[in-house]
Amino acid sequence: MVGKPTNAFSTFERYIVKRKKNLFFAILAMLLIIMSTTVVSAQSNFIDKFHHNFIADQRWKYLTNGLLITLEISIVAVLIGIVGGFLIAILRSTFDTIEKKNIFTKTINWILKAYITVIRGTPAVIQLMIIYFVVFATTNVDKVTAAFISFGINSSAYIAEIVRSGIMSVDPGQFEAGRSLGFSHAGTMWHFILPQAFKNILPALGNEFIVLVKETSIAGYIGIVDLTKGGDIIRSRTYEAFLPLIAVALIYLVIVMFLTMLVGKLERRLKTDGK
């Protein structure tokens, strides 16, 4: 008689444990069903939004056409910046090396220093708007050409200081060696100084080009449909900001990573050739 309640209690306890296990598996199954349904729903929702933002009405063309304009502006502007920057750097470094300075050389050096100070001290977007809305206000210069000039001028000021620092980092004895071999000042600069300076300034030049590519995103201020403006047009048409802006950011990221890889390869090759 004493053992019966114990057996009944044990049976009841096993029943409760079994029910708990069944309840646990039931809850787990429900959670898995809910999660799978949510994933399928989210996937379907993402596909619908992707189609709405990029496929419908061929809105993806805003990004591809904008990307071409962004690359075009960046390449032309950096070429202008390299030519202008190297000329300014050579003139300023020449002024620093000559012993006899007259009023003409001092004036030229002052003008170049003022140019660099003004360009580096004012926002690029203000320079762009001044170039297009003020300087070329009464001309037929198109927006893209104005962007070429504005970004080229802006880049030249930064490249000038980069190249000048590279030239000044070369041992002065190299210049004296070139002159002792019969080379002119320009010949010494071209054959001896600039090749050595280029190895030192290559990372900074690559970084300047990367900054310039991202800086062209302000071209939309004068109505150019570049990559950033293309993404903004899609946002205004679909009333959805996430996918268009993320797409623009990813494209910029891919460009920057590709340029960084190219600069790294070129830098390693120059180091290998120099050994």
Provide an overview of this structure:
The model has no long low-confidence stretch (mean pLDDT about 80). The chain has one domain: MetI-like (MetI-like fold, Orthogonal Bundle), CATH 1.10.3720.10. The N and C termini lie far apart (about 100 Å). The protein has nine helices and no strands. Helix 2 packs antiparallel against helix 3, helix 3 packs across helix 5 and helix 8 runs antiparallel to helix 9. The chain is mainly α.
CATH fold call? MetI-like fold
In angstroms, what separates the terminal alpha carbons? 99 Å
* Total number of strands: 0
Shape: elongated
Task: Quickly give the CATH architecture.
Answer: Orthogonal Bundle
Treating each run of at least 4 consecutive H or I residues as one helix, how many helices?
Answer: 9
Helix content: over 70%
**Main sheet properties:** none
Q: What order do the SSEs take from the amino end to the carboxyl end, as H and E?
A: HHHHHHHHH
Mean pLDDT: 82
Tally of separate domains? 1
Described by its quaternary structure, the protein is: single chain
Beta-strand proportion: under 5%
Assign the CATH superfamily.
MetI-like
Low-pLDDT residue spans = none
CATH class: Mainly Alpha
